[in-house]
Amino acid sequence: MNVLITGATGFIGAALCCEMLNSGHNVTAVTRPNSPKRDKLPSGVSVVELELDKITELTGSYDVCYHLAWNGSSGNARNDFDIQMSNIKYTADVIRTAKRLGCQKFIGAGSQAEYGVVNGVCDENMAPNPFMMYGAAKLASFHMGRIVALQEEISFVWPRIYSVYGVGENEGTLISYLVDCLKNNIKAELSPCENMWDFMYITDCTKALRILGEVKKTDGIYNVSAGKPRLLKEFVNEARAVINPNAEIEFGAKTADPKRTFWLEPNVEKLFKLGFECEVEFKEGIRRKMG
C-alpha cells in the first residue's frame, strides 16, 4: 500500500512509520516545515513538509491515510477551546484531501478521553461523556468526520487509543515520570492508583493500527488497547520490581478527583476479531523502555 501519515514525528506517528515500512508498505510522512523532530523518522520514509492548515495543497497518490496530527494533545492546551476546535476542521480537511488523492480508507486517532469516566468495562457502544475539551474535540471529530467521509464516499475508521507507553514517549507521562524516579532512586509521589488501567506497548499499538489499514472491511470505532486491565497500583509495583525493587513510592501523595480520574477497562473484542494479538507484556515493555 501507499500510506500517508500526518503527525508522523509524534510518538505514535514515528513508530507507525517504522511499522508500515517493516511490513513492506510505502510511507509518506507529512511534517511541519523544519520540524525539529524530523530525525525521529526512519530512513525510507518520503517526507512532505506542510503546515496542517495547508493540507488541502497536498499532491500524490495513496491508498490509506492515517491522520494522527493533533494540536494541543498535552498540558493546558488540552482544555483550550480554540486550539481544540481547530482540530475538527483539520480532520475534515484531511478526509477530503485523502479522498482526492485516491485513498480508499481514512483512519483517524480517537482517544479513550472521548468516553470520559467509565467505571467498568467499556465497549465501542458506550455513550461518550468527555470532561475536557480534548476529549470533546476528538468526539466531535469522530461524528463530523464520519459524516464527511460518507459524503466523500471513503471508508472511515476511528481507533480510540488508550494508554500507550514505550521508547520515544513524551515526557510528563505517568510511565516516564515513574521510570525516571525509579532509575534515579527518587521517591515517586502518585495518586492512590486504585483505578483500573490498561497499558499497551507502542509496537503493539502500531501493529493494531497497521491491521486496521490492511484489513479490507474495517469501519467505525475500534478500542485500541491491550485488553489486560489491572489496578494501576499493580502496574506501578511491577515496574518497581523490574527497575528498582527498593525504591520508595508514596501512593496517595497526590489527590484524585473521581469525576476526573479515568478508569481504563476497555473491551477490545472487536479489534482482536481482526486477528490482532498483543506481543509485549508489561514487564518486557518496561525493560525495553529502560534500554
Would you mind describing this structure in some detail?
This protein has 291 residues and is α/β, with parallel strands linked by helices. It folds into two domains: 2-164 and 200-224, NAD(P)-binding Rossmann-like Domain (Rossmann fold), CATH 3.40.50; 167-198 and 228-266 and 275-290, UDP-galactose 4-epimerase, domain 1, CATH 3.90.25. The chain is 34% helix and 18% strand. The chain is built from eight helices and 14 strands. The protein has helices at residues 11-22, 81-100, 133-152, 174-183, 202-214, 232-243, 269-272, 282-290, and strands at 2-6, 26-31, 46-49, 64-67, 105-107, 110-111, 155-161, 163-165, 188-190, 196-197, 199-201, 220-224, 230-231, 249-251. The strands form four sheets. Strands 1, 2, 3, 4, 5, 6, 7 and 12 form an eight-stranded parallel sheet that branches. Strands 8-11 form a two-stranded parallel ribbon. It has a two-stranded parallel sheet with strand order 9-14. Helix 4 (174-183) runs parallel beside helix 6 (232-243) and helix 6 packs across helix 8. The radius of gyration is 19 Å and the shape is globular. The two termini are 32 Å apart.
Shape: globular
According to CATH, the homologous superfamily of the largest domain is NAD(P)-binding Rossmann-like Domain
Assembly context of the chains: single chain
Question: Count of DSSP E strands?
Answer: 14
Helix content: 25-40%
